[in-house]
Design a protein that fits this description.
- There is one protein chain.
- By secondary structure, the chain is α/β, with parallel strands linked by helices.
- It folds into 2 domains: 2-159 and 350-365, Rossmann fold; 172-347, Glycogen Phosphorylase B (Rossmann fold, 3-Layer(aba) Sandwich).
- It has helices at residues 12-23, 59-74, 87-94, 106-109, 116-128, 137-145, 172-178, 198-211, 226-239, 254-263, 278-285, 316-328, 330-347, 350-365, and strands at 2-7, 27-32, 45-48, 78-82, 99-103, 131-134, 153-155, 185-188, 216-220, 245-248, 266-269, 290-293, 308-311.
- Strands 3-2-1-4-5-6-7 form a 7-stranded parallel beta sheet, with helices on both faces.
Length: 370
C-alpha cells in the first residue's frame, strides 16, 4: 500500500508511525511541515516543505500548492495528516481522498483560544476528513461535539515499543553510563516549548532543593524554543540552582532515551494541554512515576497515587511538593513505578494499536472517492 503522511518530521509520533509501516512492507512518503532536525525513518521518502519557503505569512499558501502537487502526483492509497492543525490544513487543501486526520491534543484542546481563521480551517479539516482518529476518549468527545459523525471517528491510541521501554533492576550501571551520580534524580521529559510549561518546572526546582538539597535535575531540551530556553536558564541561574541542573541534548536513539527514563527517580510532564503523550507512557513503562498535569486525556491511562501524582496546571508549589513527596517516600515511588509497568504492559503495546490503524487504512483504501 502506498501511504502519504503529512506531519512534523521531528515528532516521536511521526517516527514511530512511519517506521512501523515501512517495516510492514508499505510504501511510505512523508511530507514534513516543520524544519527537519532529525532524519526520517529508513525507507521513508521525505519531502521537506520548509525547503521551499518558511516565511510565516506566506508559507501555507506555498506549502499548500506544493503539497497538492506532491499528493496528486503520488496518488497514494491513503493520505494521513498527523494533527488537525497545520498538517490537517494541508491535507484538506489538497482535496485528496481518502484523507485520515489524527487529532493529537493541543490542535483542538486550544481551539477556543485561537483566531477565527484558525478555528475555521481546523473545523473544515475535521468535517471533510473521511476518518478522524483520536488519541483519547476526551478528544473523541470534543471531535463529536463539532458535528463529526461517530461512524467516522474512533479512539486509537499510539502505544509504545515495550521491547525498548521496559524497567531494569539496577539503575546504577545506567547512571554511570550516562555520567550521572547517585543523587535523587528528577527528569523533565517534555520538549522545551511553551505549551509544556517548562518555566513552572524551572521555578519549582529551587523549592525542591530547599527541602532536598541533594536532588539533581536532568532537563530534555529537544524541539527547543531558544527564547524560552534562555528564560529557563536565567531562572535557574538567578535561583542559584545551576549546580543541580543538567541539560540533555536532543536524542535520536530510543534506547538512550529509555536509559534516562530508567535512571530517573521521578519524571515531570506539566503541560497546559495534552493528548496521549508517548513520552509519558514510555517513562511509565520503564518504571518511573511521573508528576503530571491533571488533564482529562491522561485519565484514560493513569490514576492519581497509583501510577502518577496529578497536579493542577500552573501550580508551582504543587509541582515541587509532588516531586518532594516521591523523592522522600521510597516505598510510594517503587509501588507506583511497579504499577505503572503493569498498566503499560497491559494496555500500551504499540503493535496492537498500529495494527488497528493499518486496518483503517485498508478499509478506506477500498472506498476511495477522490
Amino acid at each position: 500500500m502506498k501511504i502519504c503522511i503529512i506531519a512534523n518530521p521531528n515528532s516521536a509520533h511521526t517516527h514511530r508511525w512511519t517506521n512501523y509501516f515501512v517495516k510492514h512492507g508499505h510504501d511510505v512518503h512523508l511530507i514534513g511541515e516543520h524544519p527537519a532536525f532529525r532524519d526520517p525513518s529508513p525507507g521513508v521518502i521525505f519531502y521537506n516543505l520548509c525547503g521551499t519557503t518558511n516565511i510565516k505569512k506566506y508559507r501555507y499558501l506555498r506549502w499548500g500548492i506544493e503539497t497538492r502537487r506532491i499528493i496528486h502526483q503520488l496518488q497514494p492509497d491513503v493520505l494521513h495528516s498527523l494533527g488537525a492543525v497545520s498538517a490537517g490544513w494541508l491535507g484538506r487543501y489538497s482535496g485528496y481522498h481518502p484523507h485520515i486526520v489524527t487529532v493529537m491534543g493541543s490542535d483542538i484542546n486550544l481551539l477556543g483560544t485561537r483566531s477565527a481563521l484558525f478555528r475555521t480551517l481546523t473545523l473544515s479539516t475535521l468535517r471533510h476528513a473521511d476518518y478522524v482518529i483520536c488519541l483519547s476518549n476526551e478528544l473523541s468527545k470534543m471531535v463529536l461535539s463539532y458535528g463529526i459523525s461517530p461512524q467516522r471517528c474512533e479512539v486509537v491510541y499510539l502505544g509504545i515499543d515495550l521491547n525498548i521501554f521496559r524497567p531494569e533492576e539496577d539503575s546504577t550501571i545506567i547512571r554511570a553510563k550516562l555520567g550521572l551520580d547517585h543523587s535523587p534524580l528528577v527528569l523533565s521529559i517534555r520538549a522545551m516549548n511553551w505549551i509544556y510549561n517548562p518555566l513552572d518546572i524551572a521555578n519549582a526546582i529551587p523549592k525542591v532543593l530547599q527541602k532536598s538539597p541533594r536532588t539533581k535535575f536532568a532537563i530534555f531540551t529537544y524541539n527547543q524554543d531558544k527564547k524560552l530556553f534562555s528564560q529557563f536558564n536565567q531562572i535557574i541561574d538567578r535561583s542559584g540552582a545551576m549546580h543541580a541542573v543538567t541539560y540533555v541534548k536532543p536524542l535520536d536513539d530510543d534506547s538512550i532515551i529509555a536509559d534516562y527514563y530508567r535512571a530517573a527517580d521521578v519524571a515531570i510532564s506539566v503541560p497546559k494541554s495534552d493528548g496521549t503523550p508517548s513520552t509519558v507512557l514510555e517513562c511509565l513503562a520503564c518504571g518511573t512515576p511521573v508528576v503530571l498535569s491533571d488533564l482529562p486525556t491522561l485519565h484514560d491511562w493513569v490514576e492519581n497515587e497509583k501510577e502518577c501524582l496529578f497536579v493542577q496546571t500552573g501550580d508551582v508549589k504543587a509541582i515541587s511538593d509532588a516531586i518532594i513527596q516521591l523523592i522522600e517516600n521510597t516505598t510510594l515511588r517503587k509501588d507506583m513505578g511497579g504499577q505503572a509497568v503493569t498498566t503499560m504492559e497491559k494496555r500500551a503495546d504499540q503493535n496492537l494499536w498500529m495494527q488497528r490503524s493499518e486496518d483503517i487504512y485498508y478499509q478506506l483504501a477500498g472506498n476511495t472517492s477522490s
